[in-house]
Amino acid sequence: MAILNKIRQQSLVLIVVIAMALFAFVLSGLFDGSANFSSKSQNVVATVNGIDLKRDDFMNKVENAQRQYGNSMSSTQAMNTVWDQEVRNAVFEKQYEALGLTVERDYIRSLLSQSLASFEEFKNDAGLFDENKLNEFIANLKAIQPETAILNGSPINFEAWTNFEANIAVTGKEQMYTNMVRAGVIGTLADGELDYKLENDNVDLKFIQIPFASIPDSTITVSQGDIKTYINKNKDKYEVDESRDLYFVQFKEEPSLEDEEAIKNEVASLVKGKTDNSTTAGIDETEIGFKDSKNETAFLAEHSATKLYDGYLFKNTLPTAIADSVYNMNVGDVYGPYKDGNFYKATKLIDIKQVADSVKVRHILIPFVGATRVDATVTKTDSEAKKTADSIYTVLKGNRSKYKSLLSLSSDKVSNEKDGEIEFAYTDSFAPEFRDYSFENKVGDFAVVKTAFGYHIIEILKQGDRQKAVKIGILSLPIEPSEQTIDDVYNETSKFEIAVTKGVFQDVAKENGYTVKPVSNIKELDETIPGLGAQRAMVRWSFEDGVKVGSVKRFNIQGGGYAVAVVSAINEKGLMTTEKASVTALPAIRKEKKAALIKERVSGKTLEEVSASEGQIIKTAAAVNMKNPTLSGAGREPYVIGAAFGLSEGGTSKVLTGNLGMYMIQVTKITKAVELPSYQAAANKVGTAKANSVSAALFTALKDAAKIDDNRAAFY
Questions:
Q1: Residue 151: its pLDDT value, please?
Q2: Residue closest to 660 by CA, chosen among 209, 289, 253, 11
Q3: N or C terminus of the chain: which is more exposed, having fewer CB within 10 Å?
Q4: What is the average pLDDT score of the chain?
Q5: Is the pTM of this model over 0.85?
Q6: How far apart are CA 123 and CA 689, in angstroms?
Q7: Is residue 78 a contact partner of residue 527, using CB atoms and an 8 Å limit?
Q8: CA nearest 404: which of 392, 394, 386?
C-alpha cells in the first residue's frame, strides 16, 4: 500500500518522464530517416524515370485486377501484372512528353469502336457497331454507379469502365509511338543483298570432327581460381540480384490411421442410424440413418460433404470402382463405407427409371433482369418476362407453325441460328429444370419452364433410346486430421523449432528423421516457395532487417501444418559465387581446356594426316550456307561454317573450335548465288522482319535505359 501511495504522489513526474521518452522516440525517427515518417516512402510504390507510382492508385489497380481474374490470380500475381503495365506506361510516357505526343477524344472513340466491334451489346439490327448503343451503355453505367452491368458476359462498373477507356488511350499512344519507330526501321538494298547471299551462297566441304566428349571430364582439373577467372571474364552472364537460400522442414497436418478409421466408423454409423441414451429424460432417442431415411436431400444437407444430385445416371457415368455394385443394387440398398480419394463414402440407390439417352427440343428464351448471363440491354422484370412467355405460349399453342417467326423474341442467339433447336444428352450440363422437362415428358409436349436463364417455351421434338438409369445419394465425409493429430503436429513442430535454435538445422533434422528441403535464389518479390506453394510471408521474412544466416522461423502452410525455415545464405547483388556459378562455368571451362589439349596434340596439316592420328573419319557436307549453319552429322556450328566462307576453293583450315568439338575443314566447292537485277524484294523482307521485332525490342531497350526505384517489397 505504501508503494502505491508513493507512485500516486509521483504521478506528475512519471507523466513527464513518459512524455519525454515518447518525444525522444519521435525525434529519433525524424533524424534517422525512419520510414514511419517519410511520406514519400509511405505513399510511393516506385519511381520510374522521375514518375511516381502512387500507393493508393497502384493498390486500387491491383484490387481491380484481382476482382477481374478472381481465384485464378493471387495478390502477388495481380501486383506483378499491374507492375509490368505501370512500368511500361511510365517508360513510354517519358517518350511521349519529349515528342509532345497526345491522343484526341475522336481517336480514342475510334479505338473503342475497333475494340468493341464484336460485342453483341453494341450491335444494331444489321449486326454493325452502333455508337449510340455504346453511349447509352456508358450513360447507364454512370447513372447506376457503383453498381455493375453485364458486358460480354462479365460484370463491370463505371470505375472499371473509365479505367478501360484510360487504358485504350494509353494503348493508342503506344501504337502511334511504335508505328513512328517502325517507320524508321527499314531494310536497305545492301541489307537485302547481304541477306540474299547469306542464304544462297553455299560451299561443299570435307571435315573432321574431334568431339570434346572423346576426352573424359574426369581427366580435366578445374580449380576455384579457374572458375573465378571465368566469371570475371563473363560478368554479364553471372550478374545476379540479391537473393536468399533457405532450408526448410515441413510438418503436414495429415490424418493418422486412427483418424481414417474413426471417419470410416462415423460413415457406417450415419448409414445405420444412432441411438442416444444420454438424454436428460433418460429416454433413448434413435436418429434415423441414411439407409432408412425418406428425405435423402435433407439428410445429406445435414450430414454429408456432398449434396444430393437431383438427376439420374447411366452405368457408364457412375464411378468405375462402384458402378457394377451400385447399378445392380435394389432401391434402398447402400454400398459402403468405402474410401474414395480423401473421403469415406456410402452410396444409396434411391430410384430406378428408364431414361432417354438424348433429346431434341426447340425453345424460345425470354430473360429478365438479374438472370444468368443476361444481356445488358434486357429491361424486363421477372413478372414481365413470364407474361411475355405466357403470351408466346398461347400463340404457339394455337398454331405451332408460327414458331420460327417468333424466334426474333428469343435471346438465345446460338439456337436461333438452328431454328431454336437444341440436341443434347442427358448427361450434358444443362439447367436442371430444362433437362428434367425435356427428358421426363414425351415427344410433342409443350410448356413454359423457368430456369436461372429466364423463361423457356419448350417443345420436345425427339427422344433417344430409353435405358436403365439410377438416382443415387452419396454420403461422404472428408478424411481429416483429428484435433489430437493437429495438436501432436503443433507440438512436434514446436519442439523442432526450439531444438534448431540450439543446434545445426540439418543435424537436428537428421537426428529426428525429418527431410530437409533446400531452396535457392529466392528473390525479394517472389511469392512461391518450391514444395510449399504460395509463401509470401516466408520470403518477406528472409529479407527483413536483422535476419541473418542461421535465423529460424516457423510458418503456417496452405492445407494445414507448418514449415520451419532457416536462412542458409544471403546472396548480395553482384557476381554469382563460384559455388553457384560452377553449374554452368564448369562445362564451359572444361570445353576450353579440352580445346587447348586437342590443339596442342594435333600436328597434321591435312585432313588425311589428322584423320589417321586422331582416328576420326573424314565427313562431307554439301551446299552449306551461313543462314543455316549446320554440318550434317555434326550439328549447328556457326563459327566453323563462317570460317569455311573465309577459305578459297581447295583451302584447308587450321584446327577450329566449335560447339561440340574441334574441327579441321577443307572447302571442295564454292557456289556463288546468282546475281539479281534488284534486291528490293529481299530488302523488303529484311525490313519487315526488323519492323516485327520493334515492339518487344523497343520496350526492352527503354526499360533497360530507365531509372527505376522499386519499393514494392515494402508494401507486398
A1: 83
A2: 209
A3: N
A4: 87
A5: no
A6: 37
A7: no
A8: 392
